[in-house]
Amino acid sequence: MPLQKNASTSVPIHDLLTRRWSTRAFDAGKPVSSAQIAALAEAARWAPSCNNGQPWRFLMWNKSSDEAAWSKAFECLSAGNQAWVGNVPLLFLSCAASNWPDGKPNRYGAHDSGMALFSLMLQATALGLAAHAMAGFNNDKAREAFAIPADFTPQAMLAVGYQAAPDVLTDAVKEKELAPRVRRPLEETFFAGRWGRSAELGSVSV
Fold first, then answer.
1. Which of 128, 151, 170, 183 gives 20 to 30 Å between its CA and that of 25?
2. What percent of the chain has pLDDT over 70?
3. Are the C-beta atoms of residues 94 and 158 closer than 8 Å to each other?
4. Helix axes 34-45, 109-126, angle to 10 degrees
């Protein structure tokens, strides 16, 4: 059975957020449907961005329809990610525009592209899919292999598919899969009024 690792939150939040986590165990025998892929893309399309600049672009590789292109993307991944991504049916690469259309630098491009990626990830969770974002890939290799323009910066690879039981993983990867989910306490992340003054949020109920 797939492993459930719902977040243990200090206050109640939406279950779409508590259920979302970055599994490494994917079912190689279950492709993502065309309708699901369209919904993932639509979720990213409606992400917020500064001045509605929509600086994101996504490369996508579907193993079931173009295994050769998927393999080229796989080769861009780090060895650690290749150890488990072999079972993943669908890969994305988010890219962020470096500049506004008028050529001025867009300092929000990476931030906004991250929001588009997370919108896609939440939609994946809503569809019963799993999604795992990865920083471990060769930026230059991806840029060359897929003709990414110089004014766009590759940001993150994303694995999407159906979750499988941890048994599909090697022992080393399974250890990471079974590790507990942890986050910093709220008071170490949210400050009230000035930097370093902890906000009192842990006991608030909704």
1. 183
2. 98
3. yes
4. 140
Section 167-171 average pLDDT: 96
Q: Which tens digits make up the pLDDT trace of 107-128?
A: 999 999 999 999 999 999 999 9
68 token code pair: 């050769």
Can you tell me the distance from the alpha carbon of 79 to that of 93, in angstroms, rounded to the nearest whole number? 17
Q: Which pair of tokens denotes residue 201?
A: 């949020």
Give 5-66 as a DSSP string: -----SS---HHHHH------B-TT-PPPHHHHHHHHHHHHT---GGG---EEEEEEETTT-
- Looking at residue 68, its amino acid is A
Q: Reply yes or no on whether the pLDDT at 201 is more than 90.
A: no
Q: How far apart are CA 111 and CA 42, in angstroms?
A: 19
d(CA 72, CA 84): 16
Reduced to 3 states (helix: H, G, I; strand: E, B; else coil), residue 201 is coil
> Can you read off the two tokens belonging to residue 27?
């079912």
Nearest to 165 by CA among 27, 1, 22: 1
